[in-house]
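Recall that a protein's primary structure is simply its ordered list of amino acids. Everything else, from secondary elements to tertiary packing, is in principle encoded there. The following example makes that idea concrete.
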Amino acid sequence: MKAFILDSYGRGKPLRFGDMPMPELGDHDVLVEIHAAGVNPIDTKIRSGEFKLVLPFKLPMALGSDLAGIVVKVGAKVTAFKPGDAVFGHPDSSVVGTFAEYIAVAEADLALKPQSLPMEEAASVPLVALTAWQALFEQASVKAGDKVFIQAGSGGVGVFAIQLAKQAGASVATTAGAASAELVRSLGADVVIDYRRHDFTKVLSGFDFVLNSQDAKTLEQSIGILKPGGQVISISGPPDPAFAEAIGANWFVRQVMRLLSAKARRQAKRQGVHYSFLFMQASGAQLAKLAAMIDAGTVRTVVDRIYPFAETNDALAYVESGRAKGKVVIKIK
């Protein structure tokens, strides 16, 4: 099968277009013909080698982690899907390879594609929507009346986090450039701060929850706007000891993560709030709930650009530029 292949780590290094063996199918796996693949910042970070300590992939490999496509074959013990089903999903973090014609995915990591979405839009959903869902409702417990600050509201995660927080009855503040202000308001944001012109710490205070997706300085500032007992969850780092334990990291990696997160954890403790890191987990069950919300019209997708398969490296470069509003997708079939 054809794929865009990572041969060795390197920042900005183009993927090689070439042939890979067809995926092997386990008893609980589903073989999917990929029609579209979402592109995420984590794809560029895996390519650069930033995740070598926690995700030790064997190279060469196809890159990519979001997909929508058609089931062509199922493993002997698969019960939820059959050939011909239209599905979408995000494989477990130990599996990548959606910038390719086919992939074998665990049954538990897939869901039926939202009927209202074409393949390209469906492929834009999994990683970002699951990240927002797990941050807001699993690692935190955002509820009606909470004040929630979501950074980068026009980004892939921000688009879903704003909508899901509003569905829960929370009041939402976000940051966005002037060109994206109308978009994030249409998603439900109550307060929109132009990060180029205003300092959000001068405007916001007494928040229950912050979803951090930016740099260390922004994380430090975000901790400062929380009220006592509040919570900040970061999806951009630094990883904390709880995450190291959850992935079964060795002693050395645990110590590295402890040191990396020490400053944030100390600041949070001084202020009487809680800091934690989130690395999204694959979940077909949660995707099924999100699909129902999308089909009901209560949550919508935002796709910035769709690239043909041949321009996969251009899609990665655009995501790495940080200019995308919503998601970038590769149309494979």
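The longest helix spans residues 126-139. The CA atoms of residues 109 and 283 lie 5 Å apart.
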